[in-house]
Design a protein that fits this description.
The chain has a domain at 488-568: Immunoglobulin-like, CATH 2.60.40. The chain has 604 residues and is mostly beta strands. The strands form seven sheets. It has a 19-stranded parallel β-sheet that branches. The chain is built from four helices and 47 strands. A hairpin with a 5-residue loop joins strand 45 and strand 46.
Length: 604
């Protein structure tokens, strides 16, 4: 881009030719010096302190108020091959026709403050005109220069087109340089533009100040849909341009200044760079930047930290467009970005963003919120490394990982610093659940097996479901779990009594270590006998007696867990509901029918 800038400047300066006619050389003129030009001669200005940016320009004419009383008169007198029209300080002019700057290799140079009242008329650099500059000494930061109290001002435009029109759709325009002036088009009609750059290649806007309806007082118009700077490829090509330190103010007028845009690029606009500057928008439906490529064409815009203030949307990307770079936004911006369904591949970093939403209906678009100095809890950031991609939340200066992917296809979904869910693409355990200390608390493997390292509480039925053995193709079989208010284990079996009518039932080696408070049930099979528990459980066994040899006895033993975990986490059977879960009890109605006598059952 800087190479383009140097080529542009050298083209604008060096292409002004030196004529073979007689020349008068003026050394170091001052702003108040009067220079009288003899007939058939040209002036060369050497060592001028008035024009530090443009020296040694040939074919220089002055708007002297005598021979040339208007800028148009001065400019039209320049040779067709090029020259420079100098405008003195404190110059004022009211246009009576469009000011056309249609000669190649020309410049209009303001040597001090000036006011150009436009009315219905435009300043136009016609299509096909190359190497044209409009320059002033007004500083790029917008501060009032000393000793001049006001900048170069183009004001009062009332038309529906552009106050400053560069190029057109009929031919390419190249090498345009605008520097250090202000355009106020507050009185323009709806849809008007401050500056329109059409089908122009290699343009440079430096320190342009464009205003509509902010600070205009009684001079505010009623136009809506205003555009500060419009860069339009015209269906052909516009691009390789740079806008340095623009100051744009598009504000509220009696109609609200709805749907206005500070800078719009459209219709095949390529490689426009916006560096710094400040944009202030008020009204509804406004945007600082609108990149509109259309469904079949494309537009490109690159940012280097311009500031967007109070707009409805910081940037809108429409159609086959591409926007890349950093944008500063303030708290008045309600929507940071709006990507439409045809957009893709845009990447915007919102610097110092405090809030706002992002709407993305396209594909492969990304936004980023740098972590440095971000303290707001509603900001998100996309970060990447050689092995990881991560979405993080910027919360009170912290760095909370919320969604991560690695190159193996594994994913982590986190509670932004709390627990997390790990999805493993490989074999084995597929899903892990972690607590805030990054310890696994549950998992589910690839076969559907699950483990929970804590309590499992359900409100519904705990059941199994299998294919119905009698009709597996068409039916399922459900069984509910047996429930108890205790941590109860059940053991059962069938014992065959020996020659003495007794049997010893052996239980697992861990039985007494795990259980206490035993309960017994005995049932004879194939006959009856007064069987009983002859000896209770001791040494993980008990004895059945009272039957005859060969009799089969079904037995069942239950125990209450008393292992270390059970003792530490004994379940409270009845618990108070949390306040948010309480519900009113249903009305059971009268306990007895009306008029019926009370009756006590079971009494004499």
């Amino acid at each position: 881009m800087y190479l383009i800038k140097r080529v542009l400047l050298s083209g604008l300066i060096a292409l002004f030719p030196v004529f073979g006619s007689t020349q008068n050389v003026v050394q170091n003129p001052t702003a108040s010096q009067t220079i009288t030009q003899p007939p058939a001669t040209n002036f060369t200005v050497q060592g001028s302190t008035i024009l530090p940016s443009v020296n040694n320009l040939n074919n220089i004419l002055w708007v002297d108020g005598v021979k040339y009383t208007t800028i148009a008169g001065c400019y039209n007198a320049l040779p067709s091959t090029g020259g420079t029209c100098m405008v003195p300080p404190n110059y004022t002019e009211t246009l009576t026709a469009n000011l056309s700057l249609g000669k190649t290799n020309t410049a209009v140079v303001f040597t001090g403050p000036a006011t150009i009242n436009q009315g219905q008329y435009q300043v136009i650099i016609p299509a096909g005109t190359d190497n044209v500059s409009v320059l002033s000494n007004f500083p790029l930061n917008g501060n009032t220069p000393s000793p001049f109290p006001t900048p170069v001002l183009f004001t009062g435009y009332t038309g529906s087109g552009a106050a400053f029109q560069i190029g057109g759709t009929s031919a390419n325009t190249m090498n345009i340089y605008l520097r250090g002036f202000r355009i106020d088009f507050s009185l323009a009609q709806s849809g008007a533009q401050g500056i329109s750059i059409t089908r122009t290649q290699q343009y440079w806007l430096e320190g342009a100040n464009v205003n509509a309806s902010i600070g205009c007082g009684a001079g505010c118009g009623s136009g809506t849909g205003m555009i500060g700077i419009l860069i339009d490829g015209g269906g052909y090509f516009s691009g390789i341009g740079e806008i340095n330190f623009p100051i744009l103010n598009i504000g509220t007028n009696p109609s609200g200044s709805t749907n206005s845009v500070a800078i719009r690029v459209q219709n095949i606009t390529t490689h426009t760079l916006i560096i710094g500057g400040h944009i202030q928008m008020t009204g509804t439906g406004t945007a600082c930047f609108d990149v509109n490529g259309g469904a079949s064409t494309s537009s490109e815009l690159t940012f280097y930290a311009p500031n967007c203030e109070s707009a409805t949307t910081a940037i809108t990307v429409e159609g086959n467009s591409h926007a890349v770079g950093d944008i500063r936004v303030d708290s008045g911006v309600s929507k940071l970005a709006n990507f439409d369904s045809h957009s893709g591949g845009n990447k915007i970093r919102f610097v110092d963003a405090c809030c706002g939403t992002v709407v993305d209906n396209g594909s492969n678009n990304s936004v980023e919120f740098p972590a440095t100095n971000q303290v707001h809890g509603d900001l998100w950031q996309l970060t990447a490394s050689a092995n990881w991609y991560q979405v993080t939340n910027i919360l009170n200066g912290g760095f909370k990982g919320c969604l991560s992917f690695n190159n193996s296809g594994n994913a982590w979904i986190g509670a932004c610093g709390g627990g997390s869910l790990h999805v493993n693409e490989g074999s084995g355990t597929v899903v892990y659940f972690y607590n805030s200390a990054s310890s696994p608390v549950a998992y589910i493997d690839g076969s559907g097996n699950a483990q929970f390292n804590g309590n499992l509480t359900v409100s519904g039925v705990k059941s199994f479901r299998i294919d119905d053995p009698l009709d597996p193709e068409k039916k399922y079989l459900y069984h509910a779990a047996v429930e108890s208010p205790d941590m109860k284990n059940i053991y059962d079996g069938v014992a065959i009594l020996g020659s003495k009518g007794t049997a010893v039932v052996n239980l697992p080696a861990y039985f007494e270590a795990l259980n206490k408070d035993f309960r017994y049930q005995l049932t004879c099979i194939g006959g009856s006998a007064p069987v009983y528990v002859a000896r209770e459980i001791r040494g993980n066994r008990f004895v059945i007696a009272g039957g005859r040899p060969g009799l089969r006895v079904s037995w069942q033993v239950t125990g209450i867990r008393h292992d270390a975990f059970a003792n530490a986490h004994r379940m409270a059977v009845e618990q108070e509901k949390p306040a948010k879960e309480t519900t009113p009890s249903p009305d059971p109605g009268p306990l007895t029918p009306a008029g019926a006598a009370n009756k006590v059952i079971g009494s004499n």
